[in-house]
Design brief:
11 strands; binds pyridoxal-5'-phosphate; seven-stranded mixed sheet; 13% strand
């Protein structure tokens, strides 16, 4: 396969993609295959001689689409969305064609500078204060790891990087039990340890209790432990738990602790000014992460981290070996010093195309629709016999349950076997619940209300 073949097959793939997206509503949302079914369709060894592309493409069509869960299906209401707007797909095709490794300014000047400008566009779009800069990571998990590594080194006066953690004071991190598992993972990988991630109790709105945070920090100090930082959540993954940002940051700052805010999903909604009260006070955070690859339409992977001052993170993660030296006096920003991996994809291109092709107003109206439709659907479900809303809509996420755990689990299985919509489970207040999040880029009100139709059909 050469570049002439690539041009031909790119066109074939684009036509296939259009038809795939056009007919998504006719497919079950969740893959209806058994474990091992796909692997059994593939030969055990790679071919020694080239296969014709026509045959490979046929196999793709025969094997892959039916064995995929369709994240771009307009009735995907599971997990959180992983939207891929058509403009984002185009951007990825262009970035793929250039296939640059953007680790330094000089290895991809346009990627580097467009990234800086996109961080600025997004900062304004989200209504964040002017002092924030930032960078793009692959995922929120990595951005949170970068923030936690920085907390560790700041607390140790950068001795951890230099000498390792043996003999260092015991560090402590604080987050609520509604925090995402990526916080636990960061505590583990950073060498701080799961046991030193203190889970602060929440109040009945699922917000971390600032008074409890203060008491736990004081107790740790009295016990000779060393607090390193606080991680707050806006829109927790399970049921949307959201901390009181201003009050919690005030507690952290009274102990001179840095704060990282995880708004991986909900952050996209902050392009709408009316939702910004959900993270009131966020301008005092040191670090904020949100995933344009969830709700904004820039496809996976694209996680944006805003930093009040990047210097601590650069001091923690930045290395400049001789073989990466850049000549010249004015050193440009090298984002590889801000992130864990050295290599960088051209992720800023899809942010550029998405914001231009839909405009911020086009993106806002999608998010507003999603929130309104989720509220409407929750009201309908709340009025159905035997069903109850277990957590009210936080933006476009709510949960409901049937009479008891067994019936809730059985109901969810029948919903997903039916295939018209896809919902996922979680637990809340000791019980089994069903999550609904509305957020797919192309979904309509009819798609959302079909959840109620499916429930009526299955419970009739
Ligand atoms: C999805 C999510 C994450 C993890 O995001 P990745 O980009 O997949 O690492 C972290 N925190 C919250 C609140 C999330 O919703």
């Amino acid at each position: 396969m050469d570049h002439d073949d690539l041009a031909y097959w790119s066109k074939r793939a684009a036509d296939w993609a259009r038809d795939y997206h056009r007919t998504l509503r006719d497919r079950p949302v969740r893959a209806q295959v058994r474990i091992g079914e796909t692997a059994a369709k593939l030969p055990a060894h790679a071919p020694e001689t080239p296969d014709p592309v026509e045959a490979i493409f046929d196999d793709f069509c025969r094997i892959v689409p039916d064995a995929m869960t369709h994240w771009q299906h307009p009735r995907f209401f599971a997990y959180f969305p992983a939207n891929a707007a058509p403009a984002s797909m185009l951007a990825e095709q262009l970035a793929n064609a250039i296939a640059a490794q953007g680790m330094l300014w000089q290895t991809a000047p346009a990627a580097n500078e467009i990234e800086g400008v996109m961080i600025g566009w997004l900062r304004q779009a989200l209504g964040l204060a002017r002092h924030f800069t930032g960078t793009i990571h692959d995922s929120a998990t990595t951005a949170t790891l970068a923030a936690v590594l920085t907390m560790r080194e700041r607390a140790l006066g950068w001795a951890g990087n230099e000498s390792g953690l043996a003999g260092q004071p015991v560090l402590r991190l604080y987050a609520s039990d509604q925090g995402h598992s990526s916080i636990d993972k960061a505590a583990r990988i950073a060498g701080i340890g799961q046991a030193n991630l203190v889970k602060v109790p929440v109040d009945d709105t699922l917000a971390l209790r600032p008074d409890a945070l203060d008491a736990l920090i004081r107790a740790d100090l009295a016990a000779g432990l060393r607090p390193a930082g606080v991680i707050l959540s806006v829109g927790g993954t399970s049921v949307g738990g959201t901390d009181r940002i201003a009050e919690s940051i005030a507690v952290a700052k009274s102990h001179d602790l840095p704060v990282h805010v995880d708004a991986a999903w909900a952050g996209s909604a902050m392009i709408c000014p009316e939702f910004r009260m959900l993270w009131d006070g966020v301008d005092k955070a040191d670090s904020i992460v949100f995933n344009p690859h969830k709700w904004l339409g820039a496809q996976f992977d694209c996680a944006v981290q805003f930093l009040a001052d990047p210097r601590d993170q650069i001091r923690t993660l930045g290395l400049r070996p001789d073989y990466l030296a850049t000549s010249g006096e004015d050193r440009p920003t090298d984002y590889q010093e801000w992130t864990v991996p050295l290599g960088r994809r051209f992720r800023a291109l899809k942010l550029w195309l998405v914001m231009r092709a839909y405009g911020l107003d086009g993106l806002r109206s999608r998010i507003r629709n999603h929130v309104n439709w989720a509220v409407e659907l929750s009201e309908v479900i709340g009025g159905m016999d035997g069903l109850r809303i277990t957590t009210p809509p936080m933006l476009s996420l709510f949960t409901f349950a049937a009479e008891d755990d067994a019936r809730t689990t059985a109901l969810l299985d029948t919903i997903n076997d039916d295939g018209r919509v896809y919902l996922t489970p979680t637990r809340h207040a000791g019980g089994q619940v069903i999550r609904v999040q509305v957020g797919q880029f192309d979904c309509t009100r009819d798609d959302v209300m079909m959840v109620a139709d499916v429930l009526r059909d299955l419970r009739a």
